[in-house]
Amino acid sequence: MMADPHQEHIPVLQQTLLEHITLPADAVMIDATVGYGGHSFLFGKTLGSEGTIIGMDVDDECLRKAGETLSKLSCKVILVRENFAKMEEIVAKNGVTGVDFILADLGFCSGQLENVERGLSFQKKMPLDMRLDSRLETTAADIINRMDEKALADLIFKFGQEHASRRIARFIVHHRKAVPITTTEQLAMLVCKALGQPPTGRRSKIHPATRTFQALRIAVNDELGSIETLLEAAPRILAEDGRIAVISFHSLEDKLVKEDFRKNKQSGVYEILTKKPLTATEDEVLENPRARSAKLRIAQKIKNQG
To answer: pLDDT 10s digit of each residue in the chain, 306 long?
Structure first.
């Protein structure tokens, strides 16, 4: 049995996915967020030479590692540096029709969190960037230093579900008048100060800056807009009986998936295979703590009526 050479990043809900998704040897799979290739490797082992995996990611380093991970598979592997919002376009460009399985793991790789250039973590001093795709023009620092106070507060509230967003925005705007905010460390300390909480030794399991950082990352990468585009395109791409599985990590993502699946069920397009989202077992969470917040929903395209 081949081992995944990049096991430092453990793909979430592996066993759960395998229990619910079985692919024929000639299946066509789209991994909309291929990352280091862990999930694709899992399913790719069951595909023959007539099978195809299209792996998409905006991070060129992820694609490089995915290429290494998937290189020993017998199926055809197509890796594309593109946002999954372009999924329908990529499928057409590669002459693929009738996709059997679409997988979208909406989390990011552990390596991205540790990458200093990405600026995603408040645990280390990093440039305040947050672009998962380095080709994007606007960074988190641009938003923090240029956006007016009300718009910044609204952004932190909408995308971070942070109820103290106005106070945080006020602290940020006051501070940036004297010194530009350019590092994750600066921003994290400011948020802690605004909330009157120490950055360490806190009672809460989550860092006080978590919601603010989430909001900025979502805004910089237009994450929710991209998810909406993916979900809207999926029924046109899937073959009859094809399945779509989406792993989300916060309620904003999960709500979009839940509502899309429900809408397509009402339209006679999907059968929902997961009445409630599937979550990680206690054993998996112990092995892979990032799986704690993962929620998996699966739908199957059914024959269109009329």
So the answer is: 333 334 456 789 999 999 999 999 999 999 999 999 999 999 999 999 999 999 999 998 889 999 999 999 999 999 999 999 999 999 999 999 899 999 999 986 555 455 445 445 666 678 999 898 989 999 999 999 999 999 999 999 999 999 999 999 999 999 999 999 999 999 999 999 999 987 765 556 778 998 999 999 999 999 999 999 999 999 999 999 999 999 999 999 999 999 999 999 999 999 999 999 999 999 988 888 888 889 999 999 996 544
CB 182 within 8 A of CB 146: no
CATH topology identical between 14-111+223-301 and 116-221? no
116-221: CATH topology is DNA polymerase; domain 1 (1.10.150)
Length of the chain: 306
Give me the phi and psi of 50, to 5 degrees please.
-85, -5
Domain boundaries, the chain: 14-111+223-301, 116-221
For residue 72, give the amino acid letter. Answer: K
Helices (H), 147-296: 149-160, 165-176, 184-195, 210-221, 223-237, 251-266, 282-287
Nearest to 142 by CA among 130, 150, 153, 132: 130
Q: How many CB atoms neighbour CB 179 within 10 A?
A: 8
- Angstrom CA distances, 69 to 3, 5, 9, 24, 102, stand at 9, 6, 12, 21, 19
The domain at 14-111+223-301 falls in which architecture?
3-Layer(aba) Sandwich (3.40)
The whole-model pTM stands at 0.89
In order of 82, 140, 250, the CA distances from 146 in angstroms are 28, 10, 27
Residues 6+ apart with CB under 8 A from 108: 35, 120, 132
Q: What sign for the dihedral angle of Cα 173, 178, 181, 184?
A: negative
